[in-house]
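User: Hey, quick favor. My workstation is busy. Could you predict this chain's structure for me?
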Amino acid sequence: MRSSDLLTIGELARRTGLSASAIRYYEARGLVEPIRTGGNQRRFLRGDIRRLSFVLIAQNLGLSLGEIEAELARLPRGRNPDAADWKRISGRVRDAIDAKIATLEKTRADLDGCIGCGCLSLKTCRLYNPQDRWGDTGVGPRVLR
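Assistant: No problem, here it is.
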């Protein structure tokens, strides 16, 4: 590998739009792995531009750093995500989004049912106390403690 194939942290920052401190943070999280020179200076592969761009795009789409780390960990060491990887990753993210949507839709339906039922009673509430299951365990605010 030629030294011209390597980027300083400043060059990587300029090419990605990230600050050097953000790059060091991503390094600490294991998202990029610099090569150290004899003088212990960081040098990055040109492919790290693509890797950090992937991180930024994934974050903008709502993935947490933990989720991004997990996705990058699925790749062979040192390989950056390609189009096929992104298709697999986006499929998993899509499934997670669909699950969240289903949960929110159920919550909305439950909320509408609760507001509309008019029972105003924990004894008969079909959401919080179906078949008065708490009534058999005694009196007082046991559920809240």
